[in-house]
UniProtKB/TrEMBL annotation:
GO terms for molecular function: nucleoside triphosphate diphosphatase activity. InterPro entries: MazG-like_dom (IPR004518), NTP-PPase_MazG-like_C (IPR048011), NTP-PPase_MazG-like_N (IPR048015), NTP_PyrPHydrolase_MazG (IPR011551). Signal peptide: none annotated. This is Nucleoside triphosphate pyrophosphohydrolase. The keyword ATP-binding does not apply. The gene is mazG. CDD domains: NTP-PPase_MazG_Cterm (cd11529), NTP-PPase_MazG_Nterm (cd11528).
Amino acid sequence: MPDDALIHDPHGGMPRLLEIMRRLRDPDTGCPWDIAQDFATIAPYTIEEAYEVADAIEREAWDELKGELGDLLFQSVFHAQMAAERGLFTFDEVADTMSDKMVARHPHVFGDETRDKSPEQQTVDWEAIKAEERAAKGARGVLDDVATGLPALLRAHKLQKRAARVGFDWPQTTQVLDKIVEEAREVQEAHETLGPDQVEEEIGDLLFVMANLARHLGVEPESALRRANAKFIRRFGRIEALLAERGKTPDQSDLAEMDALWNVAKSEDKARARASQKVSQK
């Protein structure tokens, strides 16, 4: 029988988590669900957990963040355990690889380069080091290693950022705004004269340019859209609350009434924002 002392040690730290994962995957005594998984089936959970970390940070839910970070860490442990079983690499090798990368990318901290640089210059240096790493791995095209599994909006942002490094970019934000007007017009034309495939393509072009505008303005489009989603949920929830005060539900209302209540919710939102800004300025 295995020694369960480490498994039940509340202060067992990383060794405890690694042993729990090993036991879960034990082909004789482990969990059937965990045993049945592979890299492909776990990958969606990894993405989901990363977003839950981002969500907790965005909501400033610091009491939840510890657990969400633990969930994300467990995903790394899960993948590393499956890799170890196949003789690919171990968790310690994953940690060593990350440590090596961070040391190599921070010569101004761990090497002999000066720390007397602006954050902007450090970003330029970081990207130069990453470019050298990509070349060493045999990546030839500028866009070769932008991960295909990223959410489409985030990937669009990264593709455009990568292309901009080699000069493929509009020099002025106004040019991006002009392109948005052009793409919006093409969406309308496609809707009026073409089929659904063409409409989808034109909407994709419009979203791609919107991501480019966000980059030009220094905004992360994925983060901006998450905030917009949260705002929509908050305001629609207020519509539901106001309708409930009238003894109604949304399906018992109509667009005109809900639109008017949306404006109420919007005004309340803005009033709270102004009040919060005044407090922060004191």
